[in-house]
Hints:
alpha+beta
Amino acid sequence: MSSRRTQKVAEAIREVVSMAILADLKDPRVRDVTVTYVEASGDLRNAKVYVSIMGDEKRQSLSLHGLQNAAGFLQAKCSQRIDMRYTPRLTFVLDQGVKHS
């Protein structure tokens, strides 16, 4: 895969996941979450979704746990909206870059 295609797919995943979290996800644990960026693997089977969560450490870990539980639902949303051979497996990572800046 070319890096340009990987970047385009990562951006499409970021858009779909952020809109699904905002509009479709009904989990009360997941609040004040912003998807900052997505890193897709070269074979497009895995994707790391970096999120920024407002609040203290307890709030962040609770929201991150809720996102991990909703990963299957969000993968299904990606599968519906992005036409790809394989749906990437989503893993959520807390983005500390915004906090450190």
